[in-house]
Amino acid sequence: MIESKGWNWKIVKEDKECIWKNPSIESYYLLNRWKNQGKKEFLDLGCGLGRHSILFAKNGFNVYCFDISEEAIKRTKAWAEEEKLELNYNVGDMLNLPYKDESIDAILCRNVISHTDTEGMKKVIKEIKRVLKKDGECYLTLGSKSTWGFKETDWPMIDENTKLKMEEGPEYKTPHFYVDYELVKKLFSEFKIELIKHIEEFYENNNKTYSSYHYHVLIKKN
Description:
Layout: H1 25-36, E1 41-45, H2 51-58, E2 62-67, H3 70-82, E3 88-91, E4 104-109, H4 118-131, E5 132-144, H5 148-151, E6 157-159, E7 162-164, E8 175-179, H6 181-187, E9 192-205, E10 208-220
Parallel strand pairs: 1-2, 1-4, 2-3, 4-5, 5-8
Antiparallel strand pairs: 5-10, 6-7, 7-8, 9-10
């Protein structure tokens, strides 16, 4: 199994327009869904700069911020202190979460748990199942095997589902695990799968148009 590695947040600049300071679109749906379900204990698994931690804390959740990067936790904590919010912080590896069994109501991990290989993924999923309460939910995203990073690059293959990203930037030499629909169903067979979406996202860079595919998955612990 490959060694876990997170983003190099030290080279990521932030301002009010920074994408990593603004919550993802689906987080607002999840916020309302989980509030309506009476959920309270929220884990931001791979919190980055804290965009989802701050959102959920402002809306009355008990928030647990977790990241492998000390820099990420430091910057999330600084932001929370500016907002006068009290959050819980942990630096660690997602393969061994520092939370008690059945202690978390809801987990959001967007573009996070795919930063491992196939064996690592299996361990992360076991940890998610362990810490979730009965009927607890987790929303996660995974890279798709339809995306250019898996299909068109000559990045080193770690195993049949994993490549080592060699593109310069905060994810340089970070493993990326990719899935297809059948693999998603297999990986989460012990959960109730509430939804699976396959989404293509477009972006512009140097006057060229690029796109990437991700699976968005909502699971519930039976």
